[in-house]
Structures are given as structure tokens and as C-alpha cells.
């Protein structure tokens, strides 16, 4: 069962994924998400990477539909999405594989590192709009070298999707978690 913190984090992602703002997720929302990712320069010019992006985004829709669409209506509401929280820790390999594809898509210059600007594009791409990430990159870049390596990014990505600890930096990877009002 999702904690209040996980709920806040996933409400934010639910809003980001709900492309048509109709209050539920369906396959078309994940197709729209994949389309946003296909606009990134490395994805746009790399057919292999574009295919991986599509496979990852639509693959997660397939997992959600199979595991949490309890009424079988082809739509997932927020409560159904929150049920996925209990399943994610058992899918560490799949979550890590997603990190690999996202890293490759965002690493615009192919230098094997995510810069602050590339991180900003990641967050904006997830949300489909510009998001203020002031101060976030400094929390993520724990070794202070000004970049996120692939292993750093993967660890942060896994934290984002599985962590219940607000103090873990990975929880900020996709942008600040809005405070409960």
C-alpha cells in the first residue's frame, strides 16, 4: 500500500502521464508519452533508440494493464496506479532496464553522462511541460562532479520508482515532489 509520500510522488506522475487530462490512464496516454520521448534529438535520429523508447513506454502500459486494471476497462485510475507501488520493488530489473533506455535518450551528446541541462530535458519530457528543478541536480549529483553517470542515474531511477524515503535523492529525479497542502 502506498504511503502518503509515495502517493504524492505518483499523483505528480499520474498528472504527467494523463496526456488528455481525462482523469485516467489508457494506452493513448502512453503512446503520447512515447511521442514526447521520440522528440528528443538522440531518439529522433536513432531508429533503434526510438524503438527501445516505444518498447519501454508501451511495455509499462502493458504491465499496468495486466497487473492493476482490476476492472478490465482498459483504463487505470489513480487508485489502480497506486496499487503498482507494491509490485515495483519486485520489478527491479525491469525498472533498471527502463533507466538504461531513458539515460540513452536523454544523453543528448552521447558522452555517457547526464548534465544538468540534459536532466532538465528529462523532467520536462516526462511532464510534457517546463518544470522548475532549481536545486534538484545538486541533490542528485552526490559525488559533485557536475554530471550523473549511468550507474548513478540507474540507482536514482530505482529509488524514484521504489523508495518510500523522502530523504533519498532519487525521489527528486523526475522533478520535485509537490508538498501536501
From TrEMBL:
Keywords: Metal-binding, Repeat. InterPro entries: EF-hand-dom_pair, EF_Hand_1_Ca_BS, EF_hand_dom, EF_hand_pair_protein_CML-like. Residues 5-40, 56-91, 94-129 form the EF-hand domain. It comes from the Bacteria. SUPFAM superfamilies: EF-hand. This is EF-hand domain-containing protein. It comes from Streptomyces omiyaensis.
Amino acid at each position: 500500500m502506498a504511503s502518503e509520500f509515495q502517493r504524492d510522488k505518483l499523483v505528480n506522475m499520474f498528472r504527467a502521464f494523463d496526456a488528455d487530462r481525462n482523469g485516467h490512464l489508457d494506452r493513448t496516454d502512453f503512446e503520447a508519452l512515447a511521442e514526447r520521448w521520440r522528440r528528443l534529438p538522440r531518439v529522433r535520429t536513432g531508429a533503434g533508440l526510438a524503438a527501445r523508447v516505444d518498447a519501454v513506454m508501451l511495455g509499462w502500459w502493458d504491465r499496468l494493464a495486466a497487473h492493476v486494471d482490476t476492472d478490465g476497462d482498459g483504463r487505470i485510475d489513480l487508485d489502480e496506479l497506486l496499487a503498482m507501488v507494491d509490485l515495483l520493488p519486485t520489478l527491479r530489473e525491469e525498472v533498471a532496464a527502463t533507466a538504461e533506455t531513458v539515460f540513452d535518450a536523454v544523453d543528448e551528446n552521447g558522452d555517457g553522462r547526464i548534465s544538468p541541462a540534459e536532466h532538465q530535458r528529462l523532467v520536462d519530457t516526462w511532464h510534457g511541460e517546463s518544470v522548475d528543478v532549481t536545486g534538484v541536480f545538486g541533490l542528485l549529483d552526490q559525488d559533485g562532479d557536475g554530471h550523473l553517470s549511468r550507474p548513478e542515474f540507474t540507482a536514482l531511477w530505482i529509488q524514484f520508482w521504489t523508495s518510500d524515503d523522502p530523504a533519498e535523492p532519487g525521489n527528486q529525479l523526475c522533478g520535485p515532489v509537490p508538498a501536501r497542502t
